[in-house]
Amino acid sequence: MMTPVKRVNRFLLLATAPFFGLLLCLMLVQPALELDLKTELYSPADGPLAEAARLKGELQTAGHTAAETARTIGDSVKLYNRTTAVMNGIVVQAKAQAGRPASIYNRRIQTRLGWPLKIVDSQRINLELYRINPGSYNGYALKVKLKDPSAMAMSLGTGSPGSSETTLQAVLRSGAVAGINAGGFADRSGKRYPLGTTMIGGQYVDGFQPSSKNLTFVGLNKKGRLIGGAFSSRSQLDRLQPSFGATFVPVLLRGGVPLPIPEKWRTSPTRAPRTVIGNYKDDQLLVLVVNGYNESGNSGATLAELQNKLQALGVVDAYNLDGGGSSSLILNGTVLNRPSDGRLRQVPTHFLFFK
């Protein structure tokens, strides 16, 4: 039998059980709710720390990318430098190979000429002086390599029509390193005028004159190459683009072959001091100046002898310039030949060479 006390306790238990159950549920559930709330409100994924972490990651990635790019650029620079070095080496070698035939050809020329007495070399020109003495005559050979076409020019007297001067005077007045006499002349009214067609600075002096009486023009074109021959019209000569030139007679060699010498020039005079100019196949020039004690035909060289000499030296084209007492060769301010007049003759045209 249940006592009143037991009945009260049982009633209290029944009455408070729901509250205790609710309290227990709250106690069990509340921590989870608080954790979810905190997680939702303060998640590091959206906070300053997360932003800093993201930026740090991006910077690290950028750093790795920059380092990789720098390494790639460095490799490219090294490859470029190696390629440039190789290409430079190829260019140098190609130039050396290209220059070998010219060097070999030049040594052949020097072997035929002998040992140079003097050498003048600059960025514009190379001059080599040789002595020639085949037995029947003697004189000098001047080999000229024009590195710059402007290193050779022609002077016309002292500047006024009919004026003349010695080759030494022309050399000293113009500051040239070397000089030779050029074309022929004719005296008129106490003045000395050049023969035939004469050109200086690309301009005709006294107009174009068709070749006659075996007279031939000889000079340089604008590229610094020797040109010459007989011309019946101005357009014929203009096609060669002459820069300067003078006139005398005759042509000695054409393409390495001796040409017939006009009868008058074989015997009048037979021998004489001579000045001739020619060119090699590489466009180097060769000047021969032969000594003689007079113009009577008993000293100096014949034109046939000079043809043979030039051909033996490998010259391609050659032209006779004024000779006799006009022949002169100046180098470094010194008269090298022995003028047959006993002194240098004043003439209107000179070929000059400049350092």
Automatic annotation (TrEMBL):
Species = Paenibacillus spiritus
Q: Which UniProt keywords apply?
A: Glycosidase, Hydrolase
Q: Where is the Phosphodiester glycosidase domain?
A: 175-354
Q: GO molecular function: any one?
A: hydrolase activity, acting on glycosyl bonds
Q: Does the keyword Hydrolase apply?
A: yes
The name this protein goes by in its record: Phosphodiester glycosidase family protein
